[in-house]
Protein backbone atom coordinates (compact mmCIF):
# COMPACT_ATOMS: atom_id res chain seq x y z
CA UNK A 1 0.00 0.00 0.00
CA UNK A 2 2.83 2.40 0.84
CA UNK A 3 4.51 1.67 -2.50
CA UNK A 4 1.23 2.35 -4.29
CA UNK A 5 0.91 5.73 -2.56
CA UNK A 6 4.55 6.51 -3.33
CA UNK A 7 3.88 5.80 -6.99
CA UNK A 8 0.62 7.75 -7.03
CA UNK A 9 1.60 10.88 -5.10
CA UNK A 10 4.05 12.73 -7.42
CA UNK A 11 1.78 12.85 -10.47
CA UNK A 12 -1.32 13.76 -8.48
CA UNK A 13 0.57 16.48 -6.60
CA UNK A 14 1.83 18.08 -9.82
CA UNK A 15 -1.64 17.88 -11.41
CA UNK A 16 -3.20 19.51 -8.34
CA UNK A 17 -0.58 22.27 -8.32
CA UNK A 18 -1.13 23.19 -11.98
CA UNK A 19 -4.92 23.02 -11.61
CA UNK A 20 -4.75 25.55 -8.79
CA UNK A 21 -2.55 27.86 -10.86
CA UNK A 22 -5.45 28.29 -13.27
CA UNK A 23 -7.04 31.09 -11.27
CA UNK A 24 -9.22 32.54 -14.03
CA UNK A 25 -12.19 30.50 -15.21
CA UNK A 26 -11.13 27.11 -13.81
CA UNK A 27 -11.70 24.13 -16.02
CA UNK A 28 -14.68 21.87 -15.22
CA UNK A 29 -13.79 19.09 -12.81
CA UNK A 30 -15.27 16.50 -15.19
CA UNK A 31 -12.82 17.52 -17.94
CA UNK A 32 -9.93 17.54 -15.49
CA UNK A 33 -10.85 14.02 -14.41
CA UNK A 34 -11.27 12.75 -17.98
CA UNK A 35 -8.03 14.37 -19.11
CA UNK A 36 -6.18 12.54 -16.33
CA UNK A 37 -8.07 9.32 -17.15
CA UNK A 38 -7.19 9.60 -20.84
CA UNK A 39 -3.54 9.81 -19.85
CA UNK A 40 -3.93 6.62 -17.84
CA UNK A 41 -5.72 4.82 -20.67
CA UNK A 42 -3.19 5.61 -23.39
CA UNK A 43 -0.38 4.10 -21.34
CA UNK A 44 -1.73 0.65 -22.31
CA UNK A 45 -1.55 1.05 -26.11
CA UNK A 46 1.77 2.87 -25.65
CA UNK A 47 3.26 -0.20 -24.00
CA UNK A 48 1.85 -2.48 -26.69
CA UNK A 49 3.13 -0.30 -29.53
CA UNK A 50 6.59 -0.14 -27.98
CA UNK A 51 6.76 -3.93 -27.77
CA UNK A 52 5.67 -4.23 -31.41
CA UNK A 53 7.97 -1.52 -32.75
CA UNK A 54 11.19 -2.49 -30.95
CA UNK A 55 11.96 -5.66 -32.95
CA UNK A 56 10.99 -3.88 -36.19
CA UNK A 57 13.51 -1.06 -35.82
CA UNK A 58 16.42 -1.48 -38.29
CA UNK A 59 19.15 -1.01 -35.70
CA UNK A 60 20.31 -2.62 -32.50
CA UNK A 61 19.27 -0.47 -29.58
CA UNK A 62 22.56 -0.59 -27.69
CA UNK A 63 25.06 -1.17 -30.48
CA UNK A 64 26.17 2.49 -30.47
CA UNK A 65 25.03 5.90 -29.24
CA UNK A 66 23.38 6.84 -32.54
CA UNK A 67 21.28 3.67 -32.55
CA UNK A 68 20.41 4.20 -28.89
CA UNK A 69 19.19 7.74 -29.58
CA UNK A 70 17.15 6.60 -32.59
CA UNK A 71 15.57 3.90 -30.45
CA UNK A 72 14.77 6.50 -27.78
CA UNK A 73 13.27 8.73 -30.46
CA UNK A 74 11.30 6.25 -32.58
CA UNK A 75 10.76 3.37 -30.18
CA UNK A 76 9.67 5.33 -27.11
CA UNK A 77 9.34 9.13 -27.35
CA UNK A 78 7.37 9.35 -30.60
CA UNK A 79 4.93 6.67 -29.45
CA UNK A 80 4.26 8.08 -25.98
CA UNK A 81 4.18 11.75 -26.93
CA UNK A 82 2.27 10.96 -30.11
CA UNK A 83 -0.51 9.31 -28.13
CA UNK A 84 -0.65 12.21 -25.66
CA UNK A 85 -0.80 14.62 -28.59
CA UNK A 86 -3.57 12.64 -30.25
CA UNK A 87 -5.95 12.60 -27.26
CA UNK A 88 -5.37 16.30 -26.53
CA UNK A 89 -5.87 17.34 -30.16
CA UNK A 90 -8.82 15.01 -30.73
CA UNK A 91 -10.79 15.31 -27.50
CA UNK A 92 -9.66 18.43 -25.58
CA UNK A 93 -8.39 20.99 -28.08
CA UNK A 94 -11.86 21.42 -29.75
CA UNK A 95 -13.71 21.83 -26.42
CA UNK A 96 -15.47 25.16 -25.75
CA UNK A 97 -14.03 25.01 -22.25
CA UNK A 98 -10.56 25.33 -23.78
CA UNK A 99 -11.10 29.09 -23.90
CA UNK A 100 -7.78 30.65 -22.83
CA UNK A 101 -4.10 29.96 -23.63
CA UNK A 102 -3.16 28.54 -20.22
CA UNK A 103 -5.83 25.85 -20.63
CA UNK A 104 -3.48 24.13 -23.06
CA UNK A 105 -1.02 23.61 -20.21
CA UNK A 106 -3.75 22.53 -17.78
CA UNK A 107 -5.14 19.83 -20.06
CA UNK A 108 -1.73 18.69 -21.28
CA UNK A 109 -0.44 18.34 -17.72
CA UNK A 110 -3.51 16.34 -16.71
CA UNK A 111 -3.00 13.93 -19.61
CA UNK A 112 0.75 13.76 -18.97
CA UNK A 113 0.34 13.16 -15.25
CA UNK A 114 -2.27 10.48 -15.85
CA UNK A 115 0.18 8.68 -18.11
CA UNK A 116 3.11 9.21 -15.74
CA UNK A 117 1.13 8.12 -12.68
CA UNK A 118 0.17 4.69 -13.94
CA UNK A 119 3.65 4.15 -15.36
CA UNK A 120 5.15 5.26 -12.05
CA UNK A 121 2.94 3.00 -9.94
CA UNK A 122 3.96 -0.04 -11.99
CA UNK A 123 7.66 0.80 -11.75
CA UNK A 124 7.55 1.57 -8.03
CA UNK A 125 5.59 -1.54 -7.05
CA UNK A 126 8.06 -3.74 -8.94
CA UNK A 127 11.20 -1.75 -8.04
CA UNK A 128 10.68 -0.68 -4.44
CA UNK A 129 11.28 2.45 -2.40
CA UNK A 130 14.52 3.60 -4.02
CA UNK A 131 12.91 3.47 -7.46
CA UNK A 132 9.92 5.38 -6.10
CA UNK A 133 12.03 8.14 -4.60
CA UNK A 134 14.25 8.44 -7.68
CA UNK A 135 11.31 8.60 -10.09
CA UNK A 136 9.52 11.15 -7.90
CA UNK A 137 12.39 13.58 -8.54
CA UNK A 138 13.23 12.62 -12.13
CA UNK A 139 10.80 10.62 -14.27
CA UNK A 140 7.51 12.17 -13.15
CA UNK A 141 8.82 15.78 -13.25
CA UNK A 142 10.24 14.95 -16.70
CA UNK A 143 6.75 14.06 -17.92
CA UNK A 144 5.61 17.37 -16.44
CA UNK A 145 8.23 19.26 -18.45
CA UNK A 146 7.14 17.48 -21.64
CA UNK A 147 3.52 18.37 -20.89
CA UNK A 148 4.51 22.02 -20.46
CA UNK A 149 6.03 22.10 -23.94
CA UNK A 150 3.00 20.42 -25.46
CA UNK A 151 0.40 22.46 -23.60
CA UNK A 152 2.16 25.78 -24.18
CA UNK A 153 2.21 25.13 -27.91
CA UNK A 154 -1.44 24.01 -27.97
CA UNK A 155 -2.40 27.24 -26.19
CA UNK A 156 -0.53 29.35 -28.74
CA UNK A 157 -2.01 27.31 -31.60
CA UNK A 158 -5.57 27.96 -30.51
CA UNK A 159 -5.28 31.62 -29.54
CA UNK A 160 -2.18 32.94 -31.31
CA UNK A 161 -1.08 33.41 -34.88
CA UNK A 162 0.31 30.68 -37.15
CA UNK A 163 -1.56 27.76 -35.52
CA UNK A 164 -0.08 25.17 -37.90
CA UNK A 165 3.43 26.00 -36.70
CA UNK A 166 2.48 25.73 -33.03
CA UNK A 167 0.58 22.48 -33.57
CA UNK A 168 3.76 20.98 -35.03
CA UNK A 169 5.77 22.34 -32.10
CA UNK A 170 3.29 20.71 -29.71
CA UNK A 171 4.56 17.38 -30.99
CA UNK A 172 8.20 17.71 -31.97
CA UNK A 173 9.46 19.61 -28.92
CA UNK A 174 8.14 17.00 -26.44
CA UNK A 175 9.32 14.16 -28.68
CA UNK A 176 12.84 15.59 -28.90
CA UNK A 177 13.23 16.28 -25.16
CA UNK A 178 11.68 12.93 -24.27
CA UNK A 179 14.09 11.14 -26.61
CA UNK A 180 17.07 13.02 -25.17
CA UNK A 181 16.01 12.24 -21.59
CA UNK A 182 15.54 8.52 -22.30
CA UNK A 183 18.78 8.40 -24.28
CA UNK A 184 20.72 9.74 -21.28
CA UNK A 185 19.00 7.19 -19.01
CA UNK A 186 19.58 4.26 -21.40
CA UNK A 187 23.31 4.93 -21.69
CA UNK A 188 23.58 3.91 -18.02
CA UNK A 189 26.57 6.24 -17.64
CA UNK A 190 26.55 8.05 -14.29
CA UNK A 191 28.29 11.17 -15.62
CA UNK A 192 25.29 11.91 -17.84
CA UNK A 193 23.21 12.46 -14.71
CA UNK A 194 23.99 16.18 -14.67
CA UNK A 195 22.40 16.55 -18.12
CA UNK A 196 19.30 14.70 -16.93
CA UNK A 197 18.96 17.16 -14.05
CA UNK A 198 19.38 20.08 -16.46
CA UNK A 199 16.55 18.77 -18.62
CA UNK A 200 14.20 18.15 -15.71
CA UNK A 201 14.87 21.24 -13.61
CA UNK A 202 16.69 23.73 -15.87
CA UNK A 203 14.56 23.34 -18.97
CA UNK A 204 11.47 22.74 -16.83
CA UNK A 205 11.91 26.00 -14.89
CA UNK A 206 12.43 27.93 -18.13
CA UNK A 207 9.32 26.41 -19.71
CA UNK A 208 7.19 26.95 -16.60
CA UNK A 209 8.08 30.66 -16.61
CA UNK A 210 6.99 30.89 -20.22
CA UNK A 211 3.76 29.10 -19.33
CA UNK A 212 3.03 31.55 -16.51
CA UNK A 213 3.18 34.38 -19.03
CA UNK A 214 0.05 32.89 -20.55
CA UNK A 215 -1.70 33.48 -17.21
CA UNK A 216 -0.50 37.09 -17.15
CA UNK A 217 -1.62 37.60 -20.75
CA UNK A 218 -5.08 36.19 -20.01
CA UNK A 219 -5.44 38.28 -16.82
CA UNK A 220 -4.45 41.50 -18.57
CA UNK A 221 -6.76 40.77 -21.49
CA UNK A 222 -9.74 40.16 -19.20
CA UNK A 223 -8.96 43.24 -17.12
CA UNK A 224 -8.88 45.33 -20.29
CA UNK A 225 -12.27 43.96 -21.35
CA UNK A 226 -13.86 44.56 -17.95
CA UNK A 227 -12.54 48.13 -17.74
CA UNK A 228 -13.97 48.93 -21.17
CA UNK A 229 -17.52 47.99 -20.17
TrEMBL record:
Keywords: Cell membrane, Hydrolase, Membrane, Metalloprotease, Protease, Transmembrane, Transmembrane helix. One of its GO terms (molecular function) is metallopeptidase activity. The keyword Ribonucleoprotein does not apply. It comes from Dictyoglomus thermophilum. The chain crosses the membrane at residues 31-53, 65-85, 105-125, 137-157, 190-208. GO terms for biological process: proteolysis. Belongs to the protease PrsW family. Pfam families: PrsW-protease. This is Protease PrsW. It is a multi-pass membrane protein.
Amino acid sequence: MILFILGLAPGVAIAWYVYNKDRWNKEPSRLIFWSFALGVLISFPAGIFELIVEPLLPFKTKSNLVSLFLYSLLGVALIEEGLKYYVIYKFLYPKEEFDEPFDGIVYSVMVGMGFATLENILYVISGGYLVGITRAFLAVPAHFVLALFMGYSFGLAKFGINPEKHLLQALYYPVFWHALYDFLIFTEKWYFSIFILVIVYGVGRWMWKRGQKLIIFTTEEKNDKSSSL
